[in-house]
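During the no-cost extension, the postdoctoral fellow (Dr. R.K.) reprocessed legacy sequence entries with the updated structure-token encoder. One reprocessed record is reproduced below for audit purposes.
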Amino acid sequence: MKSASSRRTSPLAASNSGVGASDGVEALEWTAEETAEIVEACKRGDPAAQRRLYDASHQNVYRLVVRMVGLQDAADVTQQVFLQTFRKIDQFSGRSQFGTWIYRVAVNESLQHLRKSKRSQMQVLEQETMDRSPDDHKNIDNKELLEQALARLEPDLRSTFLLREVDGLSYDAIADALEIPEGTVGSRLNRARRELKQYLVELGWEP
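Re-encoded structure tokens follow.
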């Protein structure tokens, strides 16, 4: 039975630190000159540059995709994201951050996959088995609840929430990545948070 303190801890508070939170796509740390150099090399088909781009972006792209399409299909969709990235890299003009641009590709590929498969439910991430403190178990409970609640969100709301709360993108970066007005980002986030709280209560979390 969960303690009262466990029930009062909001799973939404774990979204930045507990549910696969990331430090941002490494490519965001490249200087403008480095980005331009790597992108130009990728446009020429340079395998070393493609590997550098992949290594810098793969982990965080996968984290986003797994929460969009589910664990079972995430590897295939992530592979498709990078295939499309290298096919479409000529379209990257440099007006936005490269990390934002590759998020756009990832979200688009995830949404296309969901439309094709007509599934919007994702598989809850498996938790590794190890000895944990009571606080660790409380955090795991929160993560699992949040994962299940996220699975119920419409894909458009889920992608907006993940880009903001997990990957920490600004409103304007999310608007750029999703190709929507900045005001729509705010309205989607408000709706996502409202629905998540409702789903969390339905799943057994007590505020």
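The domain at 133-207 is CATH 1.10.10.10 (Arc Repressor Mutant, subunit A). Residues 47-69 form the longest helix (23 residues). The remaining legacy entries will be reprocessed before the final report is submitted.
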